[in-house]
Amino acid sequence: QVQLVESGGGLVQAGGSLRLSCTASGRTFSAYAMGWFRQAPERERVFVAAISIGGARSYAHSVKNRFTISRDNIKNAVYLQMNSLRPEDTAVYYCRILTTGYWGQGTQVTVSS
């Protein structure tokens, strides 16, 4: 059974930073591209960032140059470093094994103005 567990969310002031972590079990982690998504209240879940098996990265326009996705295949983990946070980044953040239906439970990020 696949499990994804996110951590690292919290409350931060605008301009601050947070680092989200997602650890995976039950699959050969290194064989999959991974992604981060977020869902703000009363909004759809949207793409934030992705990292391929080989380490190629892609970002939503709204977070480019502020967020960095990375992975550690030995630790079965994917990370999202979030800098220069804005109130509009407030959302529940989810990690996902791309091309599958496996999602984590989410971690809340709240950015105060």
Structural overview:
The protein has 113 residues and is mostly beta strands. Helix content is 0%, strand content 51%. It has strands at residues 3-7, 10-13, 18-25, 34-39, 45-51, 57-59, 67-72, 77-82, 91-97, 107-112. It starts with a strand and ends with a strand. The model has no long low-confidence stretch (mean pLDDT 95).
Secondary structure layout plus pairing:
Layout: E1 3-7, E2 10-13, E3 18-25, E4 34-39, E5 45-51, E6 57-59, E7 67-72, E8 77-82, E9 91-97, E10 107-112
Parallel strand pairs: 2-10
Antiparallel strand pairs: 1-3, 3-8, 4-5, 4-9, 5-6, 7-8, 9-10
Q: TL;DR of this structure?
A:
This protein is mainly β and 113 residues long. It is built from no helices and ten strands. It starts with a strand and ends with a strand.
- Which stretches are poorly predicted, pLDDT < 50 over at least 5 residues? none
Average the pLDDT over all residues and give the rounded result: 95
Largest sheet, strands/sense/barrel: 6 strands, mixed
Major sheet strand order: 2-10-9-4-5-6
Radius of gyration: 13 Å
Helix content: under 10%
Strand content range: over 45%
Q: Classify the secondary structure makeup into a structural class.
A: mainly beta
Gap between N and C termini:
40 Å
| Count of DSSP strands | 10
Please, how many helices? Answer: 0
Overall 3D shape? globular
Supply database-style keywords.
six-stranded mixed sheet; mainly beta; 113 residues
